[in-house]
Amino acid sequence: MEEERKIEELQRLIDTHENIVFFGGAGVSTESGIPDFRSVDGLYHQKYDVPPETILSHSYFLRYPEKFYAFYRDKMLPVGAKPNAAHKKLAELEAAGKLKAVVTQNIDGLHQAAGSKVVYELHGSTHRNYCMKCGASCDTELVRRSSGVPRCEKCGGMIKPDVVLYEESLNEKVLDGAIRSIAAADLLIVGGTSLAVYPAAGLLQYFRGDALVLINKGATPMDKNADLLIQQPIGQVLGSIKVR
């Protein structure tokens, strides 16, 4: 009954607010079959000798591009992942004019696949790639199909995914948009994130609205600040919400 009451409260908050922003992390996509970093079956529990943070770092990418791409193709380019109930409900809320933006730490593009239009991808996207030599855009399928280090079809330069690697800074334009959206929100729903990755997790400090909702299966450092805390799978929670 306690969980039912919390869902009812979430429904009430969504019904009574018109400037909602969603801030999400890896837990939003695990229900689509994409592993997160820290769960039991996530990227930490795998066959590589080097930790994911090392492989997914700027210096490792430049020094060992073949090893980087072996990991990247294996772990970061899942085949057949589809938007789940959370992605779809957020797109519905945006279409209804209630949700103003999605701020995500994910790089899988599933929010856009579900129909969301205003999406701030803090860590970039696996769906975009560019040549480090001439700057030309490159299709992700070329990266997926290539062996070794993918090369630009125009100039032969090394291709880099448009994702923010460890040791790299966030895109300033994306970051600014995310901050502005969170600062203007009257309801902030945070879901599927342990709030352990900075600087992304630090964006919550810009929220000055009415209510903070936290939906995550595990505990987070912000639990005590939440007006509503729901520790259930986010797809299950958002899937039960009615858009009206």
From TrEMBL:
InterPro entries: DHS-like_NAD/FAD-binding_dom, NAD-dep_sirtuin_deacylases, Sirtuin, Sirtuin_cat_small_dom_sf, Sirtuin_class_U, Ssirtuin_cat_dom
Pfam families linked: SIR2
Catalytic activity: N(6)-acetyl-L-lysyl-[protein] + NAD(+) + H2O = 2''-O-acetyl-ADP-D-ribose + nicotinamide + L-lysyl-[protein]
Predominant cellular place of this UniProt entry's protein: cytoplasm
Top-rank taxon: Bacteria
Cofactor(s) recorded in Swiss-Prot or TrEMBL: Zn(2+)
Localization: Cytoplasm
Active site, renumbered: 123 (proton acceptor)
Sites where the protein binds NAD(+): 26, 30, 37-38, 105, 107-108, 123, 193-194, 216, 218, 234
EC number: 2.3.1.286
Positions bound to nicotinamide: 37, 107-108
Binding-site residues, Zn(2+): 131, 134, 138, 152, 155
Record-linked PANTHER family: NAD-DEPENDENT PROTEIN DEACYLASE, NAD-DEPENDENT PROTEIN DEACYLASE SIRTUIN-5, MITOCHONDRIAL-RELATED
Sequence similarity: Belongs to the sirtuin family. Class U subfamily.
Function: NAD-dependent protein deacetylase which modulates the activities of several enzymes which are inactive in their acetylated form.
UniProt cross-references to NCBIfam families, sorted A to Z: PRK00481.1-1, PRK00481.1-3
Protein name as catalogued: NAD-dependent protein deacetylase
Species this chain originates from: Fusicatenibacter saccharivorans
Lineage of the organism: Bacteria, Bacillati, Bacillota, Clostridia, Lachnospirales
